Prior knowledge:
This protein has 10 helices and 16 strands. The protein is an alpha/beta fold. The chain has a 6-stranded mixed sheet. A 4-stranded antiparallel sheet has the order 10-11-9-12, covered by helices on one side.
Amino acid sequence: MDRIDRKRDDLIALTQDLVRIPTLNPPGENYREICEYLRDRLASRGFDVELVRGEGTPGDSDKYPRWNVIARYEGTQVGECVHFNSHIDVVDVGAGWTTDPFGGELKDGKIYGRGTCDMKGGLAASIIAAEAFLEICPDFTGAIEISGTADEESGGYGGVAYLAEKGYFSPERVQHVIIPEPLQKDRICLGHRGVYWAEIETHGEIAHGSMPFLGDCAVRHMGAVLHEMEASLYPQLAQKRTEMPVVPEGARQSTMNINSIHGGQAEQETDFTGLPSPCVPDSCRVIVDRRFLIEEDVEDVAQELRTVLETVKHQRQNFRYDMRELFRVIPSMTDKNAPVVTSVAKAIGDVMGKQPEYVVSPGTYDQKHIDRIGKLKNCIAYGPGLLEMAHKPDEFVGVDDMIDSAKVMGQSLIDLLKPQ
């Protein structure tokens, strides 16, 4: 679409503006500011815009309210709705940057900054695509929605999950959803693997560090748990393979990450210059991040962890533990013949002259809530950017990739909404 090419400077400026609003999560900074920016932009183009706070959701507080923005543009005739959903939050900056993480620097055809790839570049591309469509197709059937939602990086409970519970993603209101996550401009992401997070705590007894035989070291107990995971569980996971087209290749099997480990005394503030006291730790906790396949049952996933713990219990004297589930996500995968899939595939062919690659994400994103809570199956992820750049230092998105993705989104609107 030539009109999108002519909007190149606008696309760059919009992306830079979004990146320069540091919406760090945690804790959830500047959500209201970015929602108001999007409201003003879209309202000036004729959208009806609503700000919705995810009240009472995890992390929501008066200091860090979970704000979301939803904009809707009605066509001249009643018909189906296409919804572009992007998350507004970004992860911690981390070390290793050579550019300003919130500067939005344009260099060699790339925009740098935290969130450029994941996923403010995709959000900007969807806005440009919708605006170009409305300019050339003012008389269309149906509706277009664009949303910027909170907390995807921490589960999406203050964003898409909350909105889905309120009916914003019901099949009666919305029929097609495109989530512009960075899966590369010639890929269609059909869904994602499942997640099971749990906290495991081993218990001991505190005593003086010079006489550890008078206590019971919870850290040593946890060491035995980790050893048993290495010996039995990890080899089992490596044997589990999926027919889902998960990328990268290493994620075609079941995986598990030890997300964190904490044992003994709490770490002191960075300005504390003293030494720790000599104590036997009476508690040790790990967070387990297990990613599972559509062929697996989540109850079996939980039982595998319990089996590890029970095996250690039979091997070690005085071994005591607790296991607490933190959350679970069931795998999701849209059918390749779903309307939104076929429209986007056709558009990729029209714009790039090639057939798309169909993939599944190694991690979850907000499709899980649209599918499980909203009961809306006709949903995919499609957007610009390289998946491997997400959460990395010197994160970037290519301008040409955003242009091409915006053209695909615009062509998909033409196909799905069939303007007169």
